[in-house]
């Protein structure tokens, strides 16, 4: 199926690794021009080399902290100059989870988590809004978590922040319609740098990586019996952000291997 992404311009925040990088690679194979950003210059340079190997001269990589308003505005200005004044797709992918209970989360950690989850969406959307408006059929896709619907007590502040972000995205889908479509994916457990670091910090060093991840999937009761690969949510992001999904807005797609236990009422 032709997704209609040829010559479209896509921006992926948090694009130097994991789901963001996988999304950028798929967008390139679909014919889009892609811009990624990240905070780590070395990882960004490595990501840019990987993107150039997929399709030379079709990607831009810029250092940007998505919580820095001035930096995000400067990033948007560079993208506008590079793209000819438009952006067809904005993928907001920055941010990771915080493991903490209500009792163990400090006020500073609450503020930090709420700022990260909300402003990693708010600042890029605000900065790129005019470039999205200049595109014929623009879209925003946000990477969120299943925690927004199915909170976990050991991730209390992340769960609360994720739920708030889901509410924000639903509001924006209504406010920006019919010009800009706004959708999200809600992740379960996906193999990432965060889980790799937890594996490296494991107490049972006799377990191999495959054994440790298989045990994690069992402990989390994932019906498909494994964690997702970054390419799996990336494919969903690319579809939702493409003209092929032209009648989808305000939607959230679970990418969780079946771990969701909730049934939502229509329209939620």
Which blocks of ≥5 consecutive residues have pLDDT under 50? none
Q: Which CATH first-tier class of the largest domain would you pick?
A: Alpha Beta
The major beta sheet can be summarized as: 7 strands, parallel
**CATH homologous superfamily label of the largest domain:** NAD(P)-binding Rossmann-like Domain
Number of helices: 8
Order of helices and strands: EHEHEHEHEHEHHHE
- The overall average pLDDT, rounded, is 93
Question: Roughly what fraction of the amino acids lie in strands?
Answer: 5-15%
Helix content range? 40-55%
CA-CA gap between termini? 29 Å
Number of domains: 2
Structure description:
- The protein is α/β, with parallel strands linked by helices and 268 residues long.
- The protein has two domains: 200 residues, Rossmann fold (3-Layer(aba) Sandwich), CATH 3.40.50; 37 residues, no CATH class.
- 44% of the residues lie in helices and 14% in strands.
- The chain has a seven-stranded parallel β-sheet, with helices on both faces.
- Strand 1, helix 1 and strand 2 form a beta-alpha-beta unit.
- Helix 3 packs parallel to helix 4.
- The radius of gyration is 18 Å and the shape is globular.
In short:
By secondary structure, the chain is α/β, with parallel strands linked by helices. It has helices at 18-29, 41-54, 69-83, 107-133, 156-176, 193-200, 209-219, 231-241; strands at residues 9-12, 33-38, 59-63, 89-92, 139-145, 181-187, 252-255. Helix 2 links the parallel strand 2 (33-38) and strand 3 (59-63).
